[in-house]
Specification:
alpha/beta; Rossmann fold; five-stranded mixed barrel; 7 helices; 9 strands; 31% helix; globular
Amino acid sequence: MATPHIAAEKGDFARTVLMPGDPLRARFIAENFLGEARLVNNVRGIQGYTGKYCGKEISVMASGMGMPSISIYAYELYNFFDVENIIRVGTAGGMNKNVHIRDIVLAQGACTDSGFASQFGVGGTFCPIADFGLLKGAFDIAQQMKLKAHVGNIYSTDVFYNDDKNTTEKWSRLGVLAVEMEAAALYMTASRFGKKALAICTVSDHLITGESTSAEERQTTFTDMMKLALELGIRN
């Protein structure tokens, strides 16, 4: 059942896959939270593991950076490996004064500057949104865990170094909470194939206040987000 990007067999992945961007974050989750974890994919260094959390099977695999990358892996997981749920566990830049670094954002919707939706030929604007069941479940678990979690729109962009220096202010005026580079394509891919997706992001830096975290912190210390996603994953 190997695909061009995933060297695995049918049954190697669980029904739910947690998907960080960074392969090292995928390995960190597997090594620190999963029992009986085994490496099921390492094509291009995109590490994928399957193991058990609280006795239930769950997988974690990196997506790489950007919408083209996550859409490839989501497409193949949904269509060739019987995956039903993909939960992105990533980082985002804060774009709202009410959101602070290390806060968690549950992406209800994903605004975007990407042309990804043009392939569907709908002749209008498709709104990429999370699966409501996953979103509600994540919010309920966050409440139980007493986490500071915000629910709302995020902005998925194709541009990391934006030449338009007013972009943050423009999106912030519309109530957008944070910016990242993957969720919109993940949501559209899930919608296209009747699957479920949710992006859970920890705010790693803030585009308004200038606050930031280190690369090491982003890789290994955002464990509240990881635990939240794992708890959600074993319930779906």
